[in-house]
Amino acid sequence: MERALIDSMLPKELDLVDRFKLAIETGFTAMEVRAVADDSEAERIHDAAQAAGLRIHSVMNQTHWRHPLSSPDPAEVEACVEGMRASLRQAELYGADAVLLVPAVVRSDTTYEQAWKRSQREIRKLIPLAEKHDVMIAVEDVWNKFLLTARDFRQFIDELNHPLVQAYFDVGNIVHFAVPEHWIHQLGGRIVKVHLKDYSRRDGFVNLGEGDVDWPAVREAFAAVGYNAEATVELRGGDRAYLMDLGERVDRLLGL
């Protein structure tokens, strides 16, 4: 696997090129970036990453929580769709191969079944755009009261039945209600991206290796399903010493 992190973890006081160089200097060779408001900003990020030698491997859509595809309000849905259009366009610019999408949010105006049907309907509409940009839509497991079992997650992906719609698996998000290595085995080759977090059932999200994730079992599960792409840390940011320690934790826990 390849060490990666999220752009928000890098020190904000540095300019973009120095920020991305720090990632390289601390052993992270790839990065996930958040979708930005306009394409000129995306161009600046692209140029800075190129100058630093840091590969951008995925884009995190930014509209899916505030305006989910599962909303009964057409204006909310359109806002999310527009966010996905921008994310897919920016992913192609960066040379990234995936956009992270939270597919739906179950809430007072949206049942589980409605979330399923509405989000699948909108994702199907986005597939031609994903094909145009040659970028995967990577559906993530989060605390959105949706896709609460590995079987549901697997079925959701399989019903969409397209090679550009796959799973973005977050190790830490599962611990509160399930067992990460079980999900890895059940999702198998559908997993195209991975977030690394650790979670303590007593203290919440903690640093890697300090929670209840069974890392040897997770490592073995990834090996069993043949996952060998990016392992993207999603934690709080920090300075050089913090990032160096974080990289060492990734290597130790995943056997890199």
Task: Quickly list its features.
256 residues, alpha/beta, eight-stranded parallel β-barrel, two-stranded antiparallel ribbon, 9 helices, globular
Summarize the structure.
This protein has 9 helices and 10 strands. The protein has helices spanning 16-25, 39-52, 74-94, 112-133, 150-160, 171-174, 180-187, 215-225, 240-254; strands spanning 2-6, 30-34, 55-60, 98-101, 136-140, 165-170, 191-196, 198-200, 204-206, 230-233.
Strand % is: 15-25%
Q: How confident is the prediction overall: mean pLDDT?
A: 97
CA gyration radius, whole angstroms: 18 Å
Enumerate how many helices there are, as a single number: 9
Percentage of residues in helical conformation: 40-55%
- Tell me the overall shape: globular
Which structural class do the helices and strands define?
A: alpha/beta
Topology as a string of helices (H) and strands (E):
EHEHEHEHEHEHHEEEHEH
Quote the distance from N terminus to C terminus. 7 Å
- The total strand number stands at 10
Question: What order do the strands of the largest sheet run in, or round the barrel if closed?
Answer: 1-2-3-4-5-6-7-10
Poorly predicted spans: none
Task: Characterize the biggest β-sheet.
Answer: 8 strands, parallel, barrel
